[in-house]
Write a structure and sequence with these properties.
Layout (H helix, E strand, L loop, with lengths): L7 E4 L9 E8 L8 E5 L4 E4 L5 E4 L4
Antiparallel strand pairs: 1-2, 1-5, 2-3, 3-4
Length: 62
């Protein structure tokens, strides 16, 4: 996984009742775009994220 500041992330809900979570990467803390990422989710919550298989990155528009 490789990301840069400003990319958007999606964490897929794991069950039928779980909604997807969307957010913006504020800071890449790993080397060469690798995790962990500081993410500000659309609900305003900020968290350090170590992505798993339910995680995707949407590249920021240039």
């Amino acid at each position: 996984m490789n990301a840069v500041q400003g990319d958007r992330i999606v964490i897929r809900g794991r069950t039928v009742d779980s909604a997807d979570r969307h957010g913006e990467i504020l800071e890449v803390r790993g080397a060469n775009g690798e995790p962990p990422y500081l993410v500000k989710f659309d609900d305003g919550h900020e968290s350090v994220v170590f992505p798993g298989g339910d995680f995707s990155v949407e590249k920021a528009a240039s």
